[in-house]
Amino acid sequence: METLALILAGGRGSRLDILSERRSKPAVPFAGKFRIIDFALSNCCNSGIFQIGILTQYLPLSLNEHIGVGKPWDLDRRDSFVTLLQPNNSWYEGTADAIRKNLEFVKRYASKYVLILSGDHIYKMDYSKMIEQHKQTGADLTIAAKIVPLEEASRFGVLETDSNLKINKFVEKPAQPKSNKASMGIYVFSTQALIDAIEAHPDIVDLDFGTHIIPDMIENKNVYAYEFYDYWMDVGTYDSYLETNLELCGECALDLYDPSWKIYTKSEDLPPVRVGDKAEINNSLISNGCRIDGKIHHSVLSPGVVVGEGTVIKDSVILNDVKIGKNCYIEKTIIDKETVISNNSVIGTGKDFTPNKDKPKYLSSGLNVIGKKLILPEDLVVERNVRIFSSTNPKTINEKHIKSGETLK
After folding, report:
1. What is the DSSP string of 76-91?
2. pLDDT digit string, tens, across residues 381-407
3. Nearest CA-CA partner of 69 in 80, 57, 82
4. CATH number, domain at 56?
5. Who's near 65: CB < 8 A, 6+ residues apart?
6. What is the pLDDT of residues 249-287, one digit of tens each?
7. Distance between CA 83 and CA 269 in Å, rounded?
8. What is the SS3 assignment for 118?
9. What is the largest CA-CA distance in the chain?
């Protein structure tokens, strides 16, 4: 085996708040029919890498059910596999600690290279090109680097390189960055170099690539950058999640329709989309099984969504099996699975943009987030920056007017 891929998919994604309340961040639905992890998995398959370990941790059930034996990604063949790896005796304390706790898995397969990925980014990338550069430079470690505007580089771990892309310095979120090469958290290791680097730090509990492994290897090994110029997005906040979904409704640098680089997923067997004679749809993504009798503008509808007559949906993301009644108005709202919006409801209205009182850093742009398995009453008015938490069983919300900045738990 030449390359073993390890996908770090155990992240809670706390800034996604309600959306990651009952699922890990990589399992969050995205762009209608997909999950966030589908992009890393599909990149592996399209790059010719069919031996994959997925390191899960936080609320893994949804992710495990989605991946199964890996059939949608052609990972159930005799010469391929996908293995779900969960912590045994203790939780992962850092990114490198997650690999350390699965080091026997790495040693068992004895590949030449180990590709380490995050399971919660949206992008398309041919990893084989990065691996080929790794071979040509004789690197022990190659780090994918996204070229970002220099004024934004302070938000990332920044790599400084020479003219041959050999990394001579790594600084985590520098106040005054001297480089615009931001680490993407995508690594190619020569396998023995990875094993040696991890085993060299037995006493560090929260072993982390950015804090411990990378700086040490820059000092003692050959570490190179692989520059990446295409679309890449971390959808780790409500705003970035909504904006990235809506970008795909128009002309976007991330082409979901490229037959040479498909994004694969586990799809539900649902009937075709039905559009009523009074419906209107523009600049939107509509998934299989939807029934639409209202007006959809610049929005994303996941499988099985029902929209009643006279309802208007704008700039919103509606997840699977949501039922929306007649004569509703929904603007700049994320609605999680299996929630019912009753007739004549208005969600996203008014000029009051008071940030959410419980989580002002999460919601301040006017966006509302409504959890799963809720039943909202008729004639409900929801203003802006409102959070309504999910329920494990269908639950009726009794409030009729929820003001800006409020949270219902």
Report:
1. -STT-EEEEE--SSS-
2. 999 999 999 998 999 999 999 999 999
3. 82
4. 3.90.550.10
5. none
6. 998 999 999 999 999 999 989 999 999 999 999 999 999
7. 25
8. strand
9. 68
CATH number of the domain residue 389 falls in: 2.160.10.10
Number of domains into which the chain is organized: 2
At 78-131, the pLDDT tens digits run: 888 999 998 877 888 899 999 999 999 999 998 999 999 999 899 999 999 999
Residue 112 lies in a domain: yes
| Cβ contact 234:121 at 8 Å | yes
**Sign of the CA dihedral with 320 first, then 323, 324, and 326 last:** positive
Task: Measure the CA–CA gap between 145 and 150, rounded to whole angstroms.
Answer: 13
Q: Which of 397, 401, 339 is nearest to 371 (CA)?
A: 339
d(CA 188, CA 180): 21
Cβ proximity of 207 and 100 under 8 Å: yes
List, in sequence order, the alpha helices (H) in 117-161. Answer: 127-137
Q: Which residues contact 203 (CB under 8 A, 6 or more apart)?
A: none
Instruction: Give dist(CA 140, CA 218) in Å, integer.
Output: 10
Q: What are phi and psi of 88, to 5 degrees?
A: -95, -70
Q: Residues 64, 118: one domain?
A: yes
Domain encompassing residue 318: 274-408
Q: Looking at residue 262, what DSSP letter applies?
A: P
State the pLDDT confidence band at 59, using cuts at 50, 70 and 90: confident
Other beta carbons within 10 angstroms of residue 79's beta carbon come to 7
Token pair for 31:
């762009």
CA distance 218 to 166: 9
- Cβ atoms of 371 and 402 within 8 Å: the answer is no
Check pLDDT > 80 for residue 346: yes
- With beta carbons less than 8 A apart as the criterion, state whether 327 and 311 touch: yes
- Tell me if residue 371 falls in helix, strand or coil: coil
